[in-house]
Amino acid sequence: MTRFFIVLLFVLMVICVYTIISQTLYRRYHSSVIIKGEKKHKIAITFDDGPHPVYTPKILDLFKLHEMKATFFIVGELGEKHPSILNRMIDEGHEVAIHHHRHVSAWTQTPWQLKRQIHQCAQVIKKVTNQKPLFYRPPWGHLNMSSLSMAKPYHLVIWTGIFQDWTLKTTKTALVQKLMRKVEDGAIFVLHDNGDTPGADEKAPEMTIAALEEFLPYLKQQGYESITMQQLMNQS
Ligand SMILES: [Zn+2]
């Protein structure tokens, strides 16, 4: 019995080191994990989990109206389903980046499975848009011990602001206030253009869009502009 518990404890420790401990150390101390940019009066508004056939085009309309740019961290299999939306993103000056091929956590993936998730998604982007993606953000921001090496040559991006816009428990007014509070030079915001992800509310992007209708004019009024990740990190 004692031996069983020692083995169990050992297995749990290995799992913790592979997932949460590696994630915490990388996100806090590793210089190649991008948390923030440095450009004055610029931020990067980014969207995870799309493209969605209804919500993503509405977001594109809104960004066109306010002459702002966004970065879309797409799910590869959804990109395959909606290639015209990816091409519209590129045509309108936005950036397409990697989430995973399917929306799975790096905590559940072996290093090789993780590599496949990242590179398969990158392949979809290259095939559909003829552009090479530069940035990768893992679903839920989860990293495992192999994430940095498996993500190469892509730059791993986290965020300065995440706003619980995936749940309708967050009201539009609360979301607008949260967004306003987090505006600073070089900020990287994460929002979501798809509510079909596990743990999200299907209609939550409607609230995100309503909040952006109010937030984007405010941003401009404050002398700020949303640009792509490439522009924020001087990669273009
Ligand atoms: Zn996601």
Annotate the secondary structure layout:
Elements: H1 2-29, E1 33-34, E2 42-48, H2 55-65, E3 70-74, H3 76-81, H4 83-91, E4 95-98, H5 111-129, E5 135-136, H6 147-151, E6 155-157, E7 161-162, H7 172-181, E8 188-192, H8 204-221, E9 225-226, H9 229-232
Parallel strand pairs: 1-6, 2-3, 2-8, 2-9, 3-4, 5-6, 7-8
This protein binds zinc ion.
Describe the structure.
One of its GO terms (molecular function) is hydrolase activity, acting on carbon-nitrogen (but not peptide) bonds. The chain is of the alpha/beta class and 236 residues long. The chain has a single domain (2-232), classed as TIM Barrel (Alpha-Beta Barrel). Helix content is 47%, strand content 14%. It is built from nine helices and nine strands. The strands form two sheets. Strands 2, 3, 4, 7, 8 and 9 form a six-stranded parallel beta sheet that branches. Helix 2 (55-65) packs parallel to helix 8 and helix 7 packs across helix 8 (204-221). It is globular. The protein binds zinc ion (ZN). Zinc ion (ZN) is lined by residues 48-49, 99, 103, 139, 197.
- Helix and strand string, N-terminal first? HEEHEHHEHEHEEHEHEH
Instruction: Report on the biggest sheet.
Output: 6 strands, parallel
Instruction: Provide mean pLDDT, rounded.
Output: 95
CATH homology superfamily:
Glycoside hydrolase/deacetylase
- Bound ligands: zinc ion
Give the number of domains.
1
Helix content: 40-55%
CATH class: Alpha Beta
Number of helices: 9
Distance between the termini: 59 Å
Question: How does CATH name the architecture?
Answer: Alpha-Beta Barrel
Strand content: 5-15%
The general outline is globular
List unreliable stretches of 5+ residues: none
How many beta-strand segments?
Answer: 9
